[in-house]
Write the structure tokens for this entry.
Amino acid sequence: MPIQYYIYLSLALFSIGIVGVLVRRNAIIVFMCIELMLNAVNLLLLAFSKMHYNTALLTNKETTAGTEGQLFVFFIMVVAAAEVSVGLAIIVMMYRNIHSVDVNFLNRLKN
Amino acid sequence: MIPLSLILLPFVAGILSFFVKSDNGSKQLALFFSIATLAVMLLGLCVFNQSAYHHFDVSWLVSLGSRFTIGLDGMGKMLCLLTAISFPIIIAATYNNKYKSTNNFYALLLLTQAGLMGVFVAMDGLLFYFFWELALIPVYFLCSQWGGEKRIAVTFKFFIYTFIGSLLMLVGLLFLYYKTPQHSFAIKDLYNLHLAASEQNFAFWLFFIAFAIKMPIFPFHTWQPDAYEQSPTAVTMVLSGIMVKMGIFAVLRWLIPIFPDAAAKYGQLIIILSIIGIVYASLIAIKQDDVKRLIAYSSIAHIGLMCAAIFTMNSIGLKGVMLQMFSHGVNVIGLWIIADAIEQQLGTRKFSELGGLAQKAPTLAILLVVLAFANIALPLTNAFIGEFLMFNGLFQYNVYFAAIAGVGIILAAVYTLNMVQKVLYGNTTTITENAVEISGNVKWMLAIITIMIIVFGVYPQPMIDLTKDTVQALIK
Amino acid sequence: MNKLVYLVPLFPLIGFLINGLGRKSLSKSLIGIIGSAAILASFVVSVFLFIDVKAHGASVVTAFNFINIDTFKIGFAFQVDQLSSLFLLIITGIGFLIHVYSTAYMHEEKSEHFARYFAYLNLFVFSMLLLVLGANYVIMFIGWEGVGLCSYLLIGFWFKNNNYNYAAKKAFVMNRIGDLGFLLAVFWLIAKLGTVNYADVFAAANILSKFDVTAITLLLFVGAMGKSAQIPLYTWLPDAMAGPTPVSALIHAATMVTAGIYMIARSNVLYSMSEVTMNLVAIIGLATALLSATIAIKQNDIKKVLAYSTVSQLGYMFLGLGVGAYTGAVFHVMTHAFFKALLFLGAGSVIHAMHHEQDIRNMGGLKKKLPITHATFLLGCIAIAGIPPFSGFFSKDEILAAAYAHNPIYWGLGVAGAAMTAFYMFRLYATTFLGTFRGTHDQEHHLHESPKAMTIPLIILSILSVLGGLVGIPEILGGHHELHQYLSKVLISEKAHHIEHSTEYMLMAISVAIAALAVIFAIVHFSKKPELKDATGIAKAMENKWYIDELYDAVIVRPLEAVAVFLKNIIEKSGIDAFVNGVGKFVNYSSRQLRLVQSGQVGNCILIMVLSIVIFILLWFYDISIIRLVDKFF
Amino acid sequence: MNITQILFWFLSVLALVSALMVLLSKNPVHSVLWLIVVFFAISGHYILLNAQFLAIVNLIVYAGAIMVLFLFVIMLMNLSADTEPQKNVWMKLAGTIAGGCFLISACNVIYNAQNVSKEIAAKTALLNQGNIGLIGNLGKVLFKDYVVPFEISSVLFLSAIVGAVVIGKKEKNKV
Amino acid sequence: MNAIIFSALLGVVMMFSGILTTNKQAIKNIALVCLTLLLVANLANHYEWYSIKIDTKQMFSFSKYGYFFNTIAITATLLYVFVSGDDIVKVGSYGAEYFALIFFVLCGVTILSGYNNLLMLFLGIEIMTIPLYILTGSDKKNLHSNEAALKYFLMGAFSTGIMLMGIALLYGSSGNFGIETVVNITAGTLMKVPILEVIGLMFIFVSMLFKVSAAPFHFWTPDVYDGAPSVFTSFMATIVKSAGFIALITLFANKSEELGKLWNILLVIVIIATLLVGNITAVFQQSVKRMLAYSSIAQAGFMLFALYSKNDIARDGILLYTSAYSLATIGTFAILIKMDDHSINGYNGLAKSQPLLAATQSIFLFSLAGIPLTAGFFAKYFMLASVIRTGGSAAVYLVIIGVLFAAVSVYYYFKVIQAMYFKEGSAATSKITPNFKFALLVIAFLIILFGVMPDTLLGLFYF
């Protein structure tokens, strides 16, 4: 598959994530949209990984080029998991205090 | 060693003074150390006058290309002498003034002295910058803490104003630093720097704005009357007696030798500004109702003349400038002492509320008259020599400039005599009815100033000789 | 012998210091003695110097280097020559008499002020001596400003009265205007010749261009205008009568105001080189002489009349200088010093007797009560009116003759002025001494002749006024004009001598006749019925000094003050300072506005981030032109 | 067009549509479900790219663990379409436009990279083949070359654990 | 490597120390001991006495520079705990855990000082920020703290997404994650630079700018710094922010001239925007804490100068800057925490009631404002010098803009001094222990020491 399709697809997903962050007020949904962005990145990394593999395959049949990309995806997933645990804890903590998950509800810090 | 002790003595005393608990103790300490500094200075001038004693150099900030190099040349000696003389006089003359937390007051005052001394002896760009700021910070605290009603805002304006100036100077210094082949701040390396015209024109202003604010010359002067008015008088004396000389001094030491071409190029512009300043400040002084503000504007006018004379780059004029730095310092301190004596006693500085003091306090009257006439540069007072030489330089530069600046001489007479008349003459008012004679210490300090005024007015030659080497270096 | 020249200014200086510092402890008599003795000592030395100069000629004595910069040297040097030694005698001699007079005149003052007075007087004499002794223009300038200072101090001597203080200030400021001219001339000399020593300047004068000479002399003349009260800077002198009367006698008649004459006479080498200046000097002098004479006619204050008369006489002296009669001018300085001092002191005696009444309309008939004063005053009036053989005749006539030689119109106007002089002087004399007493009863009761200390100087001065002219009897009257011979070393001889003797006789006769007529008319007119009504019309304008003060006030003083107020309130406060504060306010304001951007909402923050990223991308990838532009710049 | 390509397009469209639905659903629970669909679609892509390991991990970690966590939280808070806070229209519009601008400019850059500077022209991602995405290969590299980051990421988890304790645990003593 | 391993292990130790003791003082002391150990470990590495050797497969490239930064960061943390330790354990009921998190943050910091691979950059940043989210929200009952934590978390996660997109694009172009490939690829000229590379790099750049709170990516900073418990704000604003700069420098400092020029356009915009927003907005703030938050943005603007100039002086200078800035900010926050009223008026008359606090506070503020003979001056000096070193008049204009804003900064820093010294009032503080005073004095002394002899500091460790 030509690589640009993957790039466009990822960028589209990424942008949808961004739009989600911008248009939603529910902290959980916003967070989900961020996860969507991360997934878009994952997909792109994987596509690139196979692209590099493909390129390297022309010269070397035994190549392992592109493995790093896949591993990077793995690490992103690891981090995302950790982030989710902390993020959800924070959201729950907030919900406990104000019984809302609206990101704009709390806006005491001004000036 | 002399310059080092000039800095260290007041510095150490200042630090000590923070820890002296008794009010009198700190006063005595300050007085003692300031006199000791004066003694060192006089020793340096008279006994240890070989150049070996006047230079000191240790390595410091090596990686930045800066050294702790200090030294005294003729101009430096003159200004250090001024500083050394002024501080004992200031401290003694305001000895009876009461300050909250006296020890801090004197500590900061002495630190200021250290900073000022440092400015006058620094032979390294970065070091100079340090002392330039070191002299400013204590003054900021002094004015803000012990000043008048509007002190905080006014002092802050002064501080920010000068701080912007000095930051620009720092930029200029850095610029020069990277232009020197060996990346150094040493004054001789900066002097040997041959900058291209465009570089000079550009960096010149970075320095000049800093100095112009400090002097101050028109139109950078508006901090000054406010600051003088609001500061405690002892500090005002330091400000106008010595600190404004920093600007003039810096132009002579750091600006002109490094940017000769730019100085020649923009000299005329600056002279015009200065001359506008002379007339402008003199006219405003005529309409002032406050002793301190009047002296402030008068000081602006005087400084304007000095600044104009510098940029004529005329050997006679330059000597006049250096002489006048000393003379103006001494004279203006005298005027402030009187202003302070009046304010301390009567609680007002308004002309409209004063009058008739000559009946009540004849000694004050006589001394004020002497100082007033020194202020308008009457012959046989020290100021005359300086002004005569400066006008001479200005005249040789441009006749019309000299003539317009000369209007300042006339206006100076008008406002100074206004002041004398409104303070001393006429009938007493309800406020001055119960005025008494000035106290002994004030009297003696003024007497010393008067003697200096006359002695240097009649026999200025030693002072002129002192400036010889500096002027020669500048003209070359 | 000429080393003694130090002593001449030194004695008054010592007197000043002793009286000034010891003003609280010394007794009045001691103060008087010290003050007078100092001047007497100077006088004695001056006499020796005079004799010495006469015998051995001029010399320059340098005390020390005053200002010494590379090749530019100004010594604190004294020049004792014919001109200065003559002035020394006038200053110390008359000064001494006035000091003696003052001991009595000022006796009512508290001892502190008494001492102050004598200190000032001594200081004045010191300054005046420096002025005439200086061997260069700078030393002269020192004295020049010094006498201005003393004049300021003495006019404002009674400092409780603010009008006096204003007068003092006016005097000083007007002098300063002149001083600026002087100073600029000195700078011009330095710029062109590199020296200010008389000897060097005059020796090198011929290398100066025409323009330079004219400029220098004109600027010097501006100085002289201020000091010697010429148009347009004369208005301070009448106001200066606020000071004690002996001061008026000494400063504003005999010595200080003649400094301008001295200076021009001293610089005669330069002046002779510039036709323009000479003409201007003559015209200004003549105009001043006439203008002030007209004013003097209508003044009712005894001192004011004398003051305007002084201005007028000074005008004559400038006329003399302008037409090249340097000796004549100096001669007139001398005789004028005698009779004007006499007149002022006489006036002082009258005022003293009248308990500080100065309005002549309240006097009259004082002849009997004050015989000595009357007699001496009359002699003084005759002398000033130019009646031969009194001193005024010779000196004035010399000037007039020279003026005729130069331009007959000058002479005509000069004679008119002389007539006016005679007229107002005798108007003054008649109103004061003749007729009946018009003052209060109380004043009449206390009228008495002044003490000896006052009358003896009057007598001495009247003798001098009468005989003083004899040193300068012109050749046509059979004299040798000793003064002229004495001064010929330092003053260029005037060109006045090509007038026919017969013409000269006729001129003398005409002027004397006119003066005599004026005298008679005045005595007749005023001895019986002095004018007491308020004047109207032109007379009122004359009484009000042609409204010159008001004119100055409207044209110079008030606009200047308006400008000052404008600068102070508008430019300084609302302009520069407002700008400086405005920068601070702007920072504050923008802070208040900028903080609103910080909405605190996550969505908004991220929105701005995203938009910034978009802008970054666009900047970097698309707007090549911007990049090129910036690229060039960096 | 072979089956792989058909699948690619299908999965892409599915992913995009579901992603949009995540935003558009009013009910948070629906959003979560749509997001799970996205993850499945992406996992499908992984399989197409022959990255089985990541596909599985993606399903387990994201769809399985993370999304379930989300779902639990939402259920716990009893969030529904009614309680869902809404931004005003302008903010939504601004957000959409900003996102659109981002997408367009970024795509344009990629387009340039492909057609102008040609740096990614003719490069393809290998589908269906290649064994680098298999667990054996990945495991070798992970424990040979990537052991340090692997170990270090444990610190991340440690802090996440601590965080969960610090933030999540109810405080006994009220302040 | 020592520092990374030790910080992780000691973090675990701290975690468990909470089980052993509930004595807050003891926990603090343990933390101090652990930090000292960490410092010694790092110094051991630095001076090559002892170092754990692990084959990192080019994941890291340790250098003296990195070690020195570690030393600074650890020392600053040590001082921070020394001066504010009592307040850390007071925030909530998890004293030991807070310290553990601080150690984990340090682990992230040490990773960032030596990373050689984009993966490590990513992991380092995450290790650094995730504990911070927690610390920010640690004052659980405080809505401000909640709000700050949520905002920080959401925005932080978003910026992580941006960074990952950047990394992905970069990878697409280069095929690996080593940062030397970044350097190599960007060494081309403008038109030959791969576009993917550049846009990827820019995404990373943007995300890093977010971390160091440069405008226009700074919006989280004021709210988060303001909302977080003050002790942790202090930590975030100093050590964490410095680490961000070190990471930025490592990533971008070696770029080529040609690309640099283009880069500079963006940088200049960012620098000026940052200085403007930070300084100007700080002027109006009434709360000292919020003012410090904005001022930290302003300081970031100054530190970005180093990125602009990218020369040796900049590299040295950023170390000095971070240490000077950290010292002064830690001290300022330590005093702020003790104040009852956090508004500027709350400082009125502090000089009377607590002269020592006021004096040291003044020194800290002087340093922040860049007054000579304090460390802050040389920090700014190095930044300005590095820019001027690059030559050209544009650099000088940039510097002039910088100093003008520095003058503005004096305005708000000195408002506090004015309040303390020149205004009447009764500034109330909580109990001040002698230890606290001693700690403040130590910080003040260090600031002055670096202000008088900055090259000693640099020379001691680095040259």
